[in-house]
Amino acid sequence: MGQRGNAPRQFPKICARTRNSPTKPHRGSTRSVAALLGVSQRTVERWVTKKPGARRPPGPMQVRAIEEAVLARWQPRVRARRRAQAEAEGFVFHTRARFGFAAPAGSSDDPRVRWINQDLPEEPEEVARELFAARDAGAGEQQQTVILTHALGRAYFRVWGRRAHALHIAFSDIEFADFSIG
Questions:
Q1: What CA–CA distance (Å, rounded) separates 44 from 29?
Q2: CA gap 5, 138 in Å, rounded
Q3: pLDDT level of residue 163 (50, 70, 90 thresholds)
């Protein structure tokens, strides 16, 4: 339930493309990049140097940190537009997970692994706003799953509040979760 779903273009493979990519958004400042990534300024200078024998590529943990830093700043206007669209129109939630009511074994509503493609429009609930607010507040995957469980149960089983009011919804063993907007 990360951020990659908001970016319509492919996320750049920055370390493979150019040696100066970590410093580019910081106008070449190795000091600010070092502070951002939690490494020394000299380490960043080794990554971006043009001297043939002095260049050292970043390690796997640094590559991951660089990619996360670039992702946080990747296409901010496009991401904001997609977020506004999801909040205004809703989205489609695609998942494969164990889902159902906490019902007796053998019931048709008993939790079992299901493929679900459910439209979660904005009129009955503000699911997208809740999810974005939770993510912005630093909520973990568990809290976001609770929000999705409530919305998915309301749309899938309860038909937006018209039936099955008192039953408890079970949503677990998530194999994948994806969202599509518009």
A1: 9
A2: 17
A3: low
